[in-house]
Specification:
Radius of gyration of chain A: 16 Å
Mean pLDDT of chain B: 92
Oligomer: heterodimer
Mean pLDDT of chain A: 92
Structural class of chain B: alpha/beta
Strand order of the largest sheet of chain B: 4-3-5-6-7-8-9-14-13
Strand content of chain A: 35-45%
Structural class of chain A: alpha+beta
Distance between the termini of chain B: 54 Å
Largest interface: A-B, 22 and 18 residues
Number of helices of chain B: 12
Distance between the termini of chain A: 19 Å
Chain lengths: ~140, ~425
Amino acid sequence: MNTVKLVAVFAENKPGQAARITGILARANINIRCITMASSGAYGVMKLLVTEPDLACQSLKHEGFAATLMDVIAVEMADKPGALHAVADCLARNHVNVENTSGFVANRHAILVVEVQDVARACEVLQKQGMRVLSQKETLAI
Amino acid sequence: MFWDQKIETIDRVALERLQLERLRETVSRVADRVPFYRQKFAELGLKPGSIRSLADLRRLPFTTSADLRATYPAGLLAVPPDEVLRLHTSSGTTGKPKAIFFSRADVESAADLCARSFVMAGVTKKDVFQNMMTYGLFTGALMTHYGAEKVGCLVIPAGPGNSERQVLLMQDFRTTFVHLTPSYALYLADFMEKKGVKPRRDLALRKAFVGAEPYTEETRRKIEEGLGLDVYNSYGLSEMNGPGVAFECEQKQGMHLWEDHFVIEIIDPQTGEPAPEGKPGELVMTTLCREAMPLLRYRTRDITSVILEPCSCGRTHRRLRRITGRSDDMLIVRGVNIYPQQIERVLMATRGIGRNYLIRLEGLDEMTVYVELAEAGFDGQVEHLVKMQSQIAEKLRAEILVKPRIELVPPATLPVTEGKAKRVIDNRKL
């Protein structure tokens, strides 16, 4: 089963927080490949796909942030119309509920980062459909 | 284990006889020597000789903290100034402090009560005592310092703060027991966790005497877990010597109040009438052995109740239940009486949040409770955080009948006080 680790950080919803977090990662020489932010009132959660998730998580905790690692899946898609639909359709037919999702395109590869309840099952149904579920190493190599 | 078995296990009849004898002596002495009380007695038409039973206690006037401020600095002194050995002041947050004087015998008995209290919890001369209360005008550190020396312990006068050094002292001198406030105990537990210090593995700590601020059973458990020791609830107030007034024995089931030194009442703080037996109310205390500054029926403002059943440890001095609040701390929000400790109790029983909290009141009775997210409570899902907020708000509504707004803040961002914690900010414009 191929999974990818995301770093999730809790932060107050106020100016300077994103700069503090990214500053900590910059100093640790960690590259950020993908980022999402979700805010809810006075706080927010930032999720990052980074080159060294364990080190990133440790560095953030060391600076007093509540941070955690999440297992998600990264699916490679063709960079063309209907590709995302194919993934969504496969998950739908297998009753896999999709939580927070983001995506990025790099070097002509389109990558979908998906949070699901049951990572193993999502992985299995996508692979059965012939889709490419990337490992951490493969995702970061793109 | 006993420090003074005879007096600690004295039978109730003899104890009450001793109390009455000492009360009558105290009343006649203040009538002779303290103009403040002489005048109060005159106003009430009370003759000192008319106190014939402990039930007559109710005929005596109350003494309040306002009286102590009004007679500041030395209006309640009952001995010539050169008989005074020590001055302490009580932590007044506003206005004048309260000055408390001790004669040589008063310092001696305060230390003796602390020694009794320590030995009652199993302390022996082999123990090493790291005292993390504030040394200085506050009674908290000095009186327990003297008490532990009396027992024969090695005493390390560390004072509060500088957690790095506290841990170093604990490691290097194999500290076995400590005395500190609950808020600093929680802070220290957090600190050790962050530094990778495992108290049960790395330290020799066995006991903590925790007091000076009200706290809950849940907080006791958190401190016990975090510092790897037994927590003994400890009650004292500067007006009554400081610590050593009522401490817990090894049963940890309520605090034995030393009734040979103090006679107590539990009253309804509104009416001043006695609360029903065993029911909660304001603790009122009269000193029985004080030379320099005897106080009659002192209104402590602390809310507690008396445990009526005898204790299995054999001591006959009755026990007080944990202080549940101060009648001064009570907040009135939307017409409801709320003690910050009620909020604390709910928060401490909730998973996923830290130990520190802050209550802010604004506008017209808008209540916000700030709680720190604990690392263990964060799984990266915003939805779970939102759910946790609404669950806390709902639990609080069930406890205090007011539904506050809950704000989650990052770990260790709320102000930490190493002395008495300030938990409430009231900016209401009412």
